[in-house]
């Protein structure tokens, strides 16, 4: 008699391969996000998700063994959307100002779709080993794309300094965007304008600092004209 090995907590049973199955999974994830946004993590059940999605519970269980797997799939989808927005800003044909504007607009757009859902992801839902691995992978790529943004701005940094600059810049944008989502001001044109100004000032000021002469580079008084 074969022994059934349960799926790891938070992991999908299988990936959809056909268009019909992809549509089913998409409907399930939309329903999950809707319930999370309206009622929070505690109210989420697989039966309710199946009902809202318009699919049978059996169809849901083909892909998701439990509600933790559902929220992990929503979280991974959010990660993909964030990275896609950052990738769109890396167009080498764009000027630095255009890249900055593209990043800010992309982060606002991604977090503006379901702000209540992001709140649940950040503050309410538990995390599994699968979640930690996905988050670590996302975090590395997330910072790499911010490093590319800084490099594309003309900021002459390398090694550890660029990594730290990417960490500071990404945290600043994420902090403003998440706070605005909580306050309901994410769609404010003034907020977008101020965030663009903040990022531009940071990148521009840091670039000017990197080009300033160090004290050891100063010309000795005896050699000045």
3D architecture notes:
The protein is mainly alpha-helical and 225 residues long. It has one domain (19-210): Tetracycline Repressor, domain 2 (Orthogonal Bundle), CATH 1.10.357. It contains nine helices and no strands. The chain has helices at residues 19-39, 46-53, 57-63, 67-88, 96-113, 115-123, 129-152, 160-183, 189-211. The longest helix is centred in the middle third of the chain and has 24 residues, at 129-152. The protein is elongated, with a radius of gyration of 22 Å.
Descriptive keywords:
disordered N terminus; single chain; Tetracycline Repressor, domain 2; 69% helix; disordered C terminus; mainly alpha
Number of structural domains: 1
**Which fold name corresponds to the CATH topology?**
Tetracycline Repressor, domain 2
Which secondary-structure class do the elements indicate? mainly alpha
Number of DSSP helical runs = 9
> What percentage of amino acids are in beta strands?
under 5%
Query: What gap, in angstroms, lies between the N and C termini?
Result: 94 Å
**Number of beta-strand segments:** 0
Percent of residues in helices comes to 55-70%
Q: How does CATH name the architecture?
A: Orthogonal Bundle
Largest sheet: none
